[in-house]
UniProtKB/TrEMBL annotation, chains A, B:
Keyword Calcium among UniProt keywords: no
Lineage: Bacteria, Pseudomonadati, Pseudomonadota, Alphaproteobacteria, Hyphomicrobiales
SMART domains: FCD, HTH_GNTR
Molecular-function GO terms, alphabetical: DNA binding; DNA-binding transcription factor activity
Annotated SUPFAM superfamilies: GntR ligand-binding domain-like, Winged helix' DNA-binding domain
InterPro entries: GntR_C, TF_FadR/GntR_C, Tscrpt_reg_HTH_GntR, WH-like_DNA-bd_sf, WH_DNA-bd_sf
Name of the protein described by the UniProt record: GntR family transcriptional regulator
Source organism of the structure: Mesorhizobium japonicum
Residue ranges of every copy of the HTH gntR-type domain listed in the record: 12-79
Record keywords, A-Z: DNA-binding, Transcription, Transcription regulation
Gene3D superfamilies per record: GntR ligand-binding domain-like, Winged helix-like DNA-binding domain superfamily/Winged helix DNA-binding domain
Record keyword Transcription regulation present: yes
CDD domains in alphabetical order: WHTH_GntR (cd07377)
Amino acid sequence: MPPDLNLRISPRTVQRETVDKLRLAIFSGLFQPGSRLIESQLCTQLGISRPSLREALRSLEAERLIEIVPNRGPSIPALSWEVATAIYEVRELLEVEAAGRCALRISPEQLRELEKSLSAFEEAASSNDSLAQVMTAADFYSIILANCGNPILEEVHRGLVARISFFRGRSMSLEGRAQSSLAEMREIFESIAAGDEKAARKASKQHVLRAKAAAKISMDNGI
Amino acid sequence: MPPDLNLRISPRTVQRETVDKLRLAIFSGLFQPGSRLIESQLCTQLGISRPSLREALRSLEAERLIEIVPNRGPSIPALSWEVATAIYEVRELLEVEAAGRCALRISPEQLRELEKSLSAFEEAASSNDSLAQVMTAADFYSIILANCGNPILEEVHRGLVARISFFRGRSMSLEGRAQSSLAEMREIFESIAAGDEKAARKASKQHVLRAKAAAKISMDNGI
DNA sequence: GTCAAGCCGATTGTCTGACAATCTTCATAT
DNA sequence: ATATGAAGATTGTCAGACAATCGGCTTGAC
């Protein structure tokens, strides 16, 4: 078999990645909540055709990252505090369960991985880079969710966290939030490392509750 | 203002409903797990164009009701027992929480509604119409989830239940499953009616566990 | 001046038709 | 029997079109 030279003169524009680009743009807060997304504009910006764009938009709609109102088109939904609260509550349910399970079954190897991500967050927390803080914190949870033994738990969790990504950056930049977050995460880590299910659940619950409180504060302040 | 005669000679084919049609087709088991969905065929069957169909398919893909493999197109995913188990476990988490909350906050009016749906299931259970059984049972949960005070809980639950709809018809047709299901549901209802949160949680947990067991049996039997 | 009616541009919903890239299948040759 | 290769089927993507609908603006009436 001849080696795959991977030389593609005109690669069919791989717009399987269009969804990812758009998702990232939404995460990074490029669009204001409530603002409309004009299809023709997005097409030129992304360099794809309207049918392709609309496919991507349907995916995002199903993920609840955008809303599509008939005859008005896609827009960024304004997240009410009521819905945000509901999301935090379900997140609590899922994370607590995942942390508890994780404590009982995580492998030494993955535990080291978790420790590394905690260190990464520690470093980010001592800086003022709130984007790095959010990213490393997300890594930490991801590892827990990925090792809880239930792929659905992970999948649902990811979907929910995506919807409140808007808050996360804001609340993390609250005075002292990163540091207290670090302490909470360390406690979760210690409990999991010790294989103490109950402690892991308790610590995890505390963490989500405090994150929720921080989000509420930053929202009330209209940050 | 002239009255809206609602006379549309050529109504723009409302294919906002295309997704619903397809979803229903999948629920009712019209497609075999693992079978491919040919776009051109679906287009003619549904009477819509390919771009429109592909939008609908993207929505279903995001709901995990179909899979789309690049260059192979959409297909019905074969649900492994491993994934099904994971779904049942998360369902347990959500339903238990919802039942518990419901017990504390449901209005008398909604309680009557719940009782009615229980009666409907009772009637279906005494018949042999397993489709009616599944539908009325789904109604019962829906009412609980809709009244638990957390819309996200409901939303996530609906998404998960959709993915195991394939099993539900099968396991409900197991000898005696409908009757024992009825007993379990009655216990959930009684607990909620009594405002007993703990009992509601316990009964709900039992119910999901038994449903899971029934699903496993019917799957092992290859029904 | 305020409010209603109606018009106009902007945008969406949907279709048709096209074509290259890729996968499948089957026949052929070694 | 296996590898090769060619034909057909299917997907990925685009361009262009047009009616339906929405939002805002102008106009006109009171």
